[in-house]
Amino acid sequence: MNPARLLLVDDDALLRRSLSFNLEQAGYKVSTAESAEDAIAVARREKPDLVLLDIGLPGMDGLDALRVFREEIVCPVIFLTARRRELDEALGLELGADDYVTKPFDQDVLLARIKSVLRRTQTPHTPPPQNHPLTLGDIHIDPRAHTVTVAGREIELPRREFDLLHTLAMEAGKVISAEDLLVRVWGPEYVGEPQVVYVHIRWLREKIEDDPHTPKRIVTIRGVGYRLDPQEG
Questions:
Q1: Dihedrals phi, psi of 216, to nearest 5 degrees
Q2: Residue 158, preceding bond cis, omega within 30 degrees?
Q3: Predicted pLDDT of residue 37
Q4: Is CB count within 10 Å lower at the N or C end of the chain?
Q5: What one-character DSSP code corresponds to residue 188?
Q6: 85-95 and 195-208 helices cross at what angle (nearest 10)?
Q7: CATH for 188
Q8: What residues are paired with 29 via a beta bridge?
Q9: Which residues contact 101 (CB under 8 A, 6 or more apart)?
Q10: Which of 174, 204, 170 is nearest to 184 (CA)?
Q11: Domain contains 127
């Protein structure tokens, strides 16, 4: 099996040299870039299996670069961040980052996160078991076409939000815990990280609720989990 190709993006030259050396010692093939613009050019040429992306880059920052990596190059991204974790986590999860490592980070922790993300993304995603269309009140979900309409309006959802909504819809009226949603939608590697669910629920509500601050379709049952309540059109 060929070694996974990583792209390390950081404006700290010393960190790039030392981290790329350690990653190559761990068996990875590593390319580096000091700016988001250079990284995007490298990624278009080399098609990395995973990007390690600093948020605080000069010029285009990591949050803007993430959109390109997710939408155009389509590869997983782990943020390397020295900023306040909670802020970056919320922003990055909404944009689609796969994981976070906060600077200064332990080498073994970073290697474990890299292995986990590669294992998740290189394993074919298993969609929810029911692929037939669902109509629940004014929500219509077609898994095969990957389409969602709410009150007659088509809503564009990335894969994670789509799978989250579909999972809730298949058990409409029942409460599903955050940990159960993690296992079903993201995989067992995410167990213990419920903030992933919290952020995606919030983002999903912004797209399908009339008032995201007073949700009626995706309801929080405090201390238990989330329930999808169909609303008639």
A1: -115, -20
A2: no
A3: 92
A4: N
A5: G
A6: 50
A7: 1.10.10.10
A8: 5
A9: 78, 79, 80, 81, 109, 110, 113
A10: 170
A11: no
Residue 82 contacts residue 102 (beta carbons within 8 Å): yes
34 shares its domain with 92: yes
Give ∠ CA 194-197-203 in degrees, rounded to 5. Answer: 145
Residue 45 in domain = yes
Domain end, chosen from 62, 90, 122, is at 122
Q: Report if residue 128 sits inside a domain.
A: no
How would you class 23 by CB atoms within 10 Å of its CB: exposed for 0-12, middle for 13-18, buried for 19 or more?
buried
Cβ neighbors of 213 (< 8 A, separation 6 or more) are: none
Q: What is the CA radius of gyration of the chain?
A: 19
pLDDT digits (tens, 9 = 90+) for 34-89: 999 999 999 988 889 999 998 888 888 877 888 788 777 778 888 887 765 544 55
Residue 36 lies in a domain: yes
- Choosing from 122, 146, 168, the residue where a domain stops is 122
Other beta carbons within 10 angstroms of residue 129's beta carbon come to 7
Q: Which residue has the tokens 């390397």?
A: 80
Cα 80 to Cα 178: distance, rounded to the nearest angstrom: 26
Domain shared by 138 and 118, yes or no: no
Q: What is the pLDDT of residue 2?
A: 77
For the stretch 201-211, pLDDT in tens is 999 999 999 99
Q: In whole angstroms, what is the distance from residue 108 CA to residue 233 CA?
A: 52
Non-local CB neighbours of 87 within 8 Å, separated by 6+ positions: none
